[in-house]
Amino acid sequence: MSYRLGVDVGGTFTDLLVIDNDSGQTFRTKVPSTPHDPSEAVVSGSKKVCADAGVNAEDINYFMHGTTVATNAVLEGKGARVGLVVTEGYRQILQIARSLVPGGLAAWIIWPKPEPMAPLECTVEAPERMAADGSTVRALDEAKLRENLQALKGEGIEALTICLMNSYVNGAHEEAVAKVCAEEFPDLPITISSDILPEMQEYERALTTVANSSVRPVVARYVQNLKDELDSWGMQGKLNLLRSDGGLQSADKSKEAPVNLLMSGPAGGVSGALYVAKTADLPNILTLDMGGTSTDVALIENYEPRLRRETSVGDLTVRASSLDIKTVGAGGGSIAHVPELTGALRVGPESAGAVPGPVAYGKGGEAPTVTDANVVLGYLPEALLGGTFKLDREGAKKAVQTIADALGITLLEAAAGIIDIVNENMFGALRLVSVQQGYDPRDFALMGFGGAGPLHANALGKLMNSWPVIIPPSPGVLCAYGDATTRLRVEAQRSFNTAAPNTTDADMAAVLQEIADEVTRELSEEGVAPAEQELRFEIDVRYTGQAFEVPLAVKIEDFKAGNGMAALEKAFDEEHERLFTFNLDVAHEFVNMRATALGPEPKVEAQTIEKGDGDPSGAKLRDHEMVVDGKMAPAIIYQRSKLRSGDKVLGPAIITEMDSTTVVMGGCVADVDDFGNILINPA
Amino acid sequence: MTAEIIQSNTAAFDKVDVDPVTLDIIENALRNARIEMDATLFRTAMSPGIREQGDAFPLIADHKGQMVVGQFGSFIDGFLQEYKGQIEEGDMIWLSDPYSCQGAISHNNDWLILLPIFRNGRLISWAAMFGHQTDVGGKVPGSLPTDGGSIFEEGVRIPPVKIYKKGAYQEDIVDLVIHQVRMPAWCRSDLNALIASCRMAERRVHEMCERFGDEIYVAATDELLARNYRAMKQLISNSIGEEAVSFQDYLCDDGVGFGPYKIKCTMWREGEKVVLDFEGTDPQSAASINFYLNENMFKMFFGIYMIMVFDPQILFNDGFYDLVEVRIPEGSLLKPRFPAALSCRTHALGRIFDVLGALLGQRTPEFLNAAGFSSSPHLMFSGFERNTGDWFQLFQIGFGGIPGRPFGDGPDGHSLWPGFTNVPNEFLERYYPMRIERYETVPDSGGAGLNRGGNGIIMSYRFLQTGTIAIHDDRWFTYPWGVNGGEPGMRAKKILIKADGTEMVLGNKQDNITVEEGDLLHYITWGGGGWGDPLERDPALLELELKRGLVTAEGAKAYGVVLDAAGKVDTAATEALRAKMRSERGEVPLFNAGPDIETLRARCLEETGLPAPIAPVWEEPAMAEAAE
């Protein structure tokens, strides 16, 4: 017997999922999160889910975990105090940043002056200089460096970062500085930028490396605690953490490079969606992960989520790969209001959060929220969470009525307006990941999950013309699925910055081979034999002179055979035309090369449900009414756990389950597949 | 309007009601479309000025040409007034001549694309975008000749031409223009990027019309403009008095030895309308610092400042234009007569923001910001690459200090221009024969205040081969003023140190400076003025900022703070110094611009290393008439 265990830590609940590697059978549980030390809930929940399932700790061979420890350290400003060593003349690199003041003309008047992530008083200069071609202009003056480092000694720094000019070409000076720093600060973790991000652009490289240093102590502590506790429980499987790019990395690597974990949480949802997509045979998916305060959306094409080369958390944007997830401040708790000056209806980004929450929750909330509008329209029936939690429908009506009064419209119009606007915000985000990237949303299915996703997914499918709309089983714990079913991943990159006429297939093949060897070795050290690994290559291409590059997948064999460059140039022109409608007669520049080694895909059989006869009436809970085209209309509420494969539910209808509510709109029909997925299509 | 718009369907749009929800949806969709325009441009443009620094401005307008989303106001009205031809479905307009669009764009380097969007035979909307080209030909690389005597010396002037005529691309016109410039690949690519951005907006407008219907779209754009009108009307009546307030500020020089030039503006309210009158502004310059200021563009600036200063929640568009009247005297620095040179208008463009801030905040000092929107410093560097013989050319925009604000300290070395960023130094070093040896802010350069002005930047370029540089900057002679007791910021300065150690101070507007291998240029920009009484600033902040290298112990004295040899606050000495300073200073003025012009002139050579500019004289109105 062997099992894999996935754990996703959310703001309110920690979700756990055990999968039997052979049968695909799953066991789930939820325990309250423990924000003061998230590992408590992870460990106690693991024990609980294993006890419920009758699984021994020794039988778990993989323990996979999505964590927001790094994310929260950034958002709450609780990262370590970081010291920074830079090239002489660049002490204020983080103070000046890119000189950008966000917003339009005159936005500087109200823009708060940001504090650098490594305080300026903790930044010192290294007397040295490397040229842009990697040659030494000025050798490192070690004695002077030591003298400069003394200024850091009283500052209470907990981590040290080194980022020198042009180190992306040659990291020798950074290594030399690191050696001196290690002697001066033997107890501090030291990170050098040429290790974390060997890429042009000194500010982005410095910031990314500093961000890594900043979250490193807290992540390292967390991972070590967790490891110790799991050890003493008797769990002997490998502990892996989910990276922002949807791959897994080992506990040890996570301690060194936690900057890769900043979007670990949302990546779990996309990875879970990917797993469901495969069971449902739908290669192209738009994901809609809607929670209480925000919504994450992403695009999966041919079973591959789109990646981007940066990660954004709050105001921080670093150069670390992440799934291309757009977040909007639109959730069930988003507050509706009508500003006096413009008389416009606005929804969010302010949220009622979990406390006081929507008015309907009866926990003291007074401002009308999206959830309240859903209650008024009948989309959220009175009893939530399987009947244990009753909604205050009258309170919701009263709150939404304030919006109706301010706009001079009816209660139902106001509630529908709130829903339309919050949907529009999510529509905007979905467009950013689809239409704006040159994808036609009509070629994609839309998957709704998270607490509120299934309520809104049908309406967004209609707006996007993305069918079917899929609601996976247990949409509230999909992230844990993602954690449990994704693959190990190691990535390495080289800056190349060379125009096509100045290089050859052979030169490029050599660099690709070098980074391939590097990632293969690293993944082997994680216990994946080279024969089991899958290698992928990507090259970033642009027209010489452009600032943004387009990453394109390549095969190393093509370059070895001498026809890789020609194919790559052709592929770039096609992609540029698709994205921007034109090509240029200018040399192509190959900017970065990347190799990724992936571990084997876990074989997890999806669980099937009982076959039915197409008639869902056995799952009917009761009659109900909800708004269809502006008027209350009769509808039926079904219980999801009683629906069988092949059942057809005609809208308007509501399907409830423990952690979520699905709306099937009038004019639509929902089919239940063998795996319990609900697939909604226009009738 | 003199442009004739040919529509195959001349039916007027039905007046329809738009429910508030649809209206907000269309508003959001338009805003998203604008973001998509920017994204398309930045991803495909080539010149660092656009792709790295963001010197480009998009908009989407209604069928009458009023901007519904965007930031620099509509260029369309000015064009429609001047254009003599017909506009048909499938046309796209390209222009760069400021005199052909009433200054809606203001020098030849800005290439403007205007796309009328037709639907079902009717003109339903406009998309437009302009971007600064690194080079448009003319007498100097970069096409911004400081000594330009007329616009004919400032590179290729593109009158409004149809780059697409009924859907057909006019390649010959493009070839003809591109042939005039020094950086043809960049210009071609940037032009394509501008077109692609407008096409993006066009697609989005069609999608909205498909979704909601043409009449609803038109009614929604009307209502969005009307909504802004109502909000601004209330804001104006609440915040602007009927009694006139006035402010004047200066451009330091014209680059050919004369200066300073005065910009004066007076503001008052008549009923619900605001009047902004530039009477008292100096006549136009014989050199190229003239700024052909379009009235509508200034209305837009005024509106944005009103909103940012008084109520940042309001969404911005052209709807309020009828509430503002702008008067600019003919033949003045801000409305020069053809064919006055215009290329170096960037200093005056920056300066009118300082003037605007001072006007709006004068009655309500709690909303008043200090000065610092003083210019947009440029460095040009060009030559033939030593090994390959290839032409290289850099146009780089620098930044100074952001003014002290009611909101807090001014950020150090940041951009006052929306969306602008610096160019990574590793990029410069990889693609140009230069090394940036120092890139930091100048301690004490931000004016002292309760809220300190942002520090200016020192950027030290080591040139690795022979080439030519040009410098464009201002605020080297007059000071960025402080307010409410705040001190002025430090002035800008440019120093060239030759490889043999010889040091020379360069002018802040100077072309054709030859540099050689090993030469070092210190390009120093101005600091922002301070806000509020520096004697009230927490001494602990001075201690911290000393450690951060943002102020010096000497500089701390401007705040009445004494820092000891260890960098700690000497409390007793600080209290004594502050008491002394309080008793010795007179009444604290609202504005502090430092010494008067004549004193500045007298001390100029000694303080700046440069001769004082000579007061300009005008032979009115003969020169102006001769130009007609």
Structural features:
heterodimer, A: about 675 residues, alpha+beta, Dna Topoisomerase Vi A Subunit, Chain: A, domain 2, Dna Ligase, domain 1, nine-stranded mixed β-sheet, six-stranded mixed β-sheet, 17 helices, globular, B: about 625 residues, seven-stranded antiparallel β-sheet, five-stranded antiparallel β-sheet, 14 helices, disordered C terminus
Short description:
The complex is a heterodimer of chains A (683) and B (628). Chain A is of the alpha+beta class and 683 residues long. Among the domains of chain A are: 78-213, Dna Topoisomerase Vi A Subunit, Chain: A, domain 2 (3-Layer(aba) Sandwich); 337-376 and 390-423, no CATH class; 489-598, Dna Ligase, domain 1 (2-Layer Sandwich); 611-683, no CATH class.
Structure in words:
The complex is a heterodimer of chains A (about 675) and B (about 625). Chain A is an alpha+beta fold and about 675 residues long. Chain A has 17 helices and 37 strands. Among the domains of chain A are: about 80-215, 3-Layer(aba) Sandwich (Dna Topoisomerase Vi A Subunit, Chain: A, domain 2), CATH 3.40.1360; about 335-375 and about 390-425, no CATH class; about 490-600, Dna Ligase, domain 1 (2-Layer Sandwich), CATH 3.30.1490; about 610-683, no CATH class. Chain A is globular and about 80 Å long. The model of chain A has no long low-confidence stretch (mean pLDDT about 90). With about 625 residues, chain B is an alpha+beta fold. Chain B has a domain at about 5-230. In chain B, the strands form 6 sheets. Chain B has a 7-stranded antiparallel β-sheet with strand order 3-2-7-6-5-8-9. In chain B, strands 16-17-23-20-21 form a 5-stranded antiparallel β-sheet, with helices on one face. Chain B is globular. The model of chain B is unreliable at about 620-628 (pLDDT under 50). At the A-B interface, helix 3, helix 7, helix 12 and helix 17 of A face helix 1, helix 5, helix 6, helix 7 and helix 9 of B.
